[in-house]
Amino acid sequence: MSSPEAADAAHAVARQHRRAQALVGVVYLGLPLAFLVVTVVIASTRSAFAWPAVVFPALVLVLGWFLRSRQRYQVGRWTTVGAWFGGLGVLYVGFFSLVFDVRWLVAAIMPAALVGAFLGALLGHAAQRAIMAPLRPELAGTQYELTLQLRGVLLTTLDIGTSTVTVRGRFFATPPGGREAGRRTYPLSAVTGVFAASLSGSERLKFPIALPAKAVGSAGPALILQARGEDWVLPLSAADAVAAFLNHRVSAAKLTS
Q: Using an 8 Å Cβ cutoff, are 78 and 131 in contact?
C-alpha cells in the first residue's frame, strides 16, 4: 500500500473509531444520565425531595462508567448493554412515576420499557455498524474485539480478540461435556491459515465443540480457519473482510511472539 493510500486508510479508521466511541458513550453514559435526570426531575416535584429514589439511577450511571472503561472495545457487548440500560431506565422511571397515582400508567410501563430496550439496542447496533461497516483490515491494529455470529449455526460465534481467536457455542446452561466443551480457543500466533471460501449449502459442517443447536447448511461466504492441525469451516457473511482483518492480526501476533 502506497503512503497516500495508507494515510487515507488511517484517516478512515480514525473516523470510524471516533463515530463508534461517540455512540458507545451515549449507550454507557448518556442513557444512564438521562435516566438520572428524569428521576431527579420527578423526585423534585414532591413536597419533600425524594432523594432515595435517585440512589439507584446514580449507581447505574457509575456502573455505566465502569463498564465503559472495560468494554469500550468489545464490540459484541454494546447492543446488549444498550438494551439493558434503555429498558431498565424506562421501567424504573415508570414505576417511580406511580406516586402520581395515574392509573393508565401501570398498563403503559411494560410496553414503554420494551420500546426503551429496543431503542437502546439500536444505539448499540449503530455503534457496531460504525466499526463493522466496513470492516477495514487496518482496524486489526486497534484494540477492538469482534464477536461474529455464524450463519446457520444458532448462538455460535467467532470471537476475535487482541491475542486469541475463539469458536464458541453460547449455552443458557452448562453444555454437555462441561463448559470447555462449548468453545475452542487458539492464540493468534498458533493460527496457520485464514482463507475466505464459498459454500454451496450442501456441505455437512463439523464442529468439534458442543453446539446449542444443530448446524444448518447455508450457501454463501465462509471463513476457513486453520490452527493446531484443525480446520474450521465457519459460515460468515463478511468472510473476505474478516479474513483480511484476522490475517493482519495473526501476522502482528507472530512478529511479536
A: no
d(CA 242, CA 221): 11
Report d(CA 209, CA 216) in Å as an integer.
15
| pLDDT of amino acid 257 | 66
Gap between the Cα atoms of 131 and 146, Å rounded: 10
Q: From residue 156, give the alpha-carbon distance in Å to each of 128, 211, 217, 253.
A: 18, 7, 14, 25
pLDDT higher than 60, residue 145: yes
pTM surpassing 0.85? yes
From the list 170, 158, 127, the residue with the least C-alpha distance to 245 is: 158
Residues 144 and 131 sit within 8 Å (Cβ to Cβ) = yes
Give dist(CA 121, CA 76) in Å, integer. 12
Indicate if the pLDDT at residue 103 is higher than 70: no
Average pLDDT of the chain to the nearest whole number: 87
* Cα separation values, 79 from 28, 29, 213, Å: 11, 14, 23
Q: How far apart are CA 170 and CA 191, in angstroms?
A: 23
Judge contact between 97 and 112, C-beta under 8 A. Answer: no
- Is residue 25 classed exposed, middle or buried when 0-12, 13-18 and 19+ CB atoms within 10 A define those classes? middle
Instruction: Convert the pLDDT of each residue in 195-248 to its tens digit.
Output: 999 988 777 777 778 778 777 777 899 999 999 888 888 999 889 999 999 999
